[in-house]
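Exercise 3.2. Students should predict the tertiary structure of the chain below and write it as structure tokens, then compare their answer with the key that follows.

Predict this chain's 3D structure.
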Amino acid sequence: MTLFDIIILALIQGITEFLPISSSGHLALWPLLTGRPDQGVMMDVAVHLGTLVAVCIYFRREVGRLFVGLGHLATGRARTDAARLTILIAVATVPAVLVGLVMKLTGADIVVRNVEVIGWATLLGGFLLWFADRMPERVGEGALGLRSVLAIGMAQALALVPGTSRSGITMTAARAMGFDRVSAARISMLMAVPLIFAAGVLETKEVLETSDLELGTDLVLGAILSCLAALAALTLMMRMFAGSWTMLPFVLYRLALGVVLLGLTYSGALT
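Answer key:
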């Protein structure tokens, strides 16, 4: 893979992973629209791990609470606030893990990786985000409970379809339940941690088995660049939501991108 491809892919992943506009959709579009060689699963994982480091740095206190909660659960202290948070995030992760395994085993993960699916998922996800963001901000993170994490977790499973956006659909679900924008974003980011980590663990074995030093260097570079880009994107998004910004800029981007992709698909421009 060329240095140019690595830089572009890392920037795409870093910028889009936590913004509600779909990182998987943009990563899939790069080779589909440009004719460049597909980056492969290992590079996808590398840039995702870069964003995992970024979210752990940015939300280090919250992520630290998850590890404290794990310690409490391991020692039988399941009633602490940290343990409760860890349990809730774990429950929210289950639907996406189960759906992901089914898609992997059936080959559905490959079938949905096309411009038409990405276009529709981007467009419909944009409309859903717009409708949900019109809901009044009624509650904060303290209202997060088993019922709400199950609902957000089931929504998160839909993000396995490229173009849906994991952060977008989880923020949509949280906003639909009345969580304020900052809380919706923070909940979404915490839910990303176990999923990205699980994906990284599953694919690291493949990287180690290649024994390809050049490939390993490419992966490390991609991870570092995606981490830096993700930190910048996270900082910008959280400052936007802490101010008076709504989800509208992301909605408009999704609608425009969805229309363009569907136009390219049905006009035959991509054949």
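Discussion points: The two ends are 25 Å apart (CA to CA). Residues 3-267 form one domain.
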